[in-house]
Design a protein that fits this description.
With 501 residues, the protein is of the alpha/beta class. It is built from 19 helices and 14 strands. The two termini are 31 Å apart.
Length: 501
């Protein structure tokens, strides 16, 4: 197993180079006119010019050791670590393609560090190259430069980013270190606590194979899912087709579609006006499970960043009231920015002290609770989270989840809906927590609902899996508050080691 306390090497790239001067005019706006100041004369600002490939390859190799130290040793989020390593001003001057290459390269390094660290590779370029080969099916100019600088022939390299299973991925690792004995344990790219916390995924294969399928799906880069809000979905999908994009529309949620990972949405009118959002499919399923009626009053509490509230508003056709609360002002401001660009005006984003509901007890038709979690579901999109969340933090997270759920329950009117969702799979944060809540709250019971992504019904609890639904792992439970407390506690509907599927 890799040594978790070891530090990455402080090696710097041999020749990072310098940034070329110059720029190019900013492209025209959607209306066809360049932006004009109050005086009426057009301004011609310049956009940054992309770095040459050698300079970009050198820059990534230079900042990689610091980024790794910040993530592994200091628990810093990857995006913040990258900004700190290269400087905020440098980020502003870089192009979108440069930023994508930087982020993609370093995300791959963090994602595969469990396999890379034990090899003790001397050059940081070798680390970056191996991470790229494990993560991507192609080999563009920047990784080829890393290969050349580390004394490897790019034409003899083997890319395994599209490998269908762990055996094929291990082949990429073995070819890279030809002649050396190497451990390619599928559990090594993950924290040790996952082995104890991972429930048995659904399927007909053996328990070992099912867990390996899950691990393989979590290691894949995330798919790009988008959501339509406030417009007929077909109109937006037609706009995407006209722009050369090919949306794959989800069968059960017609307002959700998957696009190519590198699709550029910025030039689309629907994206600029807030009708088209980037949102994971699992997140989009939450509003479908809530199933609010127009005119109802809902409370959205947790870490949805405004996306859950917009999903509720869309289901309610903009009618009714949604109060979205945030304990931290930066999170609220980020949500406000997203909400203002949306077509809905029935969502209010408010600061909240976490002590009592934003209204009278039992005054909401529905409450959506999305507390912070271990974040296993986000590991595809944010691979650094696996190293940031430690085993001793899980009990603290569960305690906070229980407290928030109990508080939210007091705001639900009799006959109202309580929905609990977390982007993870651990039993103690999902099925176990809901079962415990039901035992302590006889006036609530599970409320079975149709599966939002498949045919069939659920028991009232649902676990979405990346290997099945190509989305982030997410747990959703829907409960209803009865008019009178139940005479007996609800019966557990699933086995201890088999979560709902």
């Amino acid at each position: 197993m890799p040594r978790r306390d070891s530090r990455p090497p402080r090696h710097r790239s041999s020749s990072p180079g310098s940034k070329p001067p110059g720029g190019r005019p900013r492209p025209k706006t959607a209306s066809g006119d360049r932006p004009k100041p109050p005086g009426g004369r057009p301004t011609f600002k310049t956009a940054p010019r992309g770095k040459t490939m050698p300079v970009l390859a050198g820059l990534i190799a230079t900042i990689a050791p610091k980024v790794l130290r910040d993530v592994l040793d200091r628990g810093k989020r990857l995006e913040s670590a990258i900004v700190d390593a290269q400087g905020d001003e440098a980020k502003k001057k870089s192009t979108r393609s440069d930023r994508m290459m930087i982020n993609r390269s370093l995300a791959s390094l963090v994602r595969w560090w469990g396999w890379i660290e034990p090899l003790k590779l001397v050059h940081v370029e070798e680390q970056l190259l191996l991470a790229w080969l494990l993560d991507a099916p192609d080999l563009p100019a920047v990784p080829r430069l890393w290969a050349s600088r580390s004394g490897r022939d790019p034409s003899r390299l083997f890319s395994g980013g599209d490998a269908p299973n762990w055996t094929a991925r291990a082949e990429t690792l073995k070819r890279f270190v030809a002649g050396r004995t190497v451990a390619a344990d599928p559990w090594m790219p993950f924290p040790n606590w996952l082995r104890d916390e991972l429930p048995l995924p659904p399927g007909e294969e053996s328990a070992k194979i099912r867990k390996l399928h899950f691990l393989h799906a979590v290691q894949a880069p995330p798919s790009l899912w988008v959501a339509v809000r406030g417009r007929p979905p077909k109109d937006v999908w037609n706009e995407l087709h006209e722009d050369g994009l090919k949306p794959w529309v989800q069968r059960k949620i017609e307002s959700a579609a998957r696009l190519e990972r590198d699709a550029d949405l910025r030039r689309l009118e629907s994206f600029q006006t807030g009708s088209l959002l980037v949102e994971d499919l699992g997140s989009q399923a939450v509003a479908k499970v809530c199933d609010p009626d127009p005119g109802e009053r809902w409370w959205d509490v947790g870490d949805g960043a405004g996306l859950f509230a917009l999903g509720l508003a869309d289901e309610m056709a903009g009618k009714g009231t949604i109060i979205s609360t945030f304990e931290h002002e930066p999170s609220r401001l980020s949500a406000v920015k997203r909400l203002r660009s949306s077509p809905y005006t029935n969502v209010a984003a408010k600061t909240w002290d976490g002590r009592r509901p934003p209204g009278k007890p039992e005054s909401f038709d529905g409450v959506l609770v999305a507390p912070p979690s271990s974040g296993v579901g986000s590991w595809r999109r944010h691979p650094e989270v696996r190293w940031i969340i430690k085993a001793d933090q899980l009990p603290e997270l569960v305690a906070r989840q229980k407290k928030l759920l109990a508080l939210a329950a007091t705001a639900v009117r009799p006959g109202g809906t309580l929905v609990y969702t977390v982007g993870t799979v651990t039993l103690r944060e999902t099925q176990g927590l809901i079962n415990e809540f039901l035992e302590e709250s006889p006036d609530f019971r599970l409320d079975p609902f149709p599966h939002p992504l498949e045919d069939g019904e659920t028991t009232g609890m649902l676990q979405l899996w990346p290997q099945t639904h190509d989305c982030e792992a997410r747990f959703i439970a829907r409960l209803v508050r009865t008019a009178k407390p139940s005479a007996t506690p609800p019966t557990r509907t699933t086995g201890k080691n088999q979560p709902p599927s």
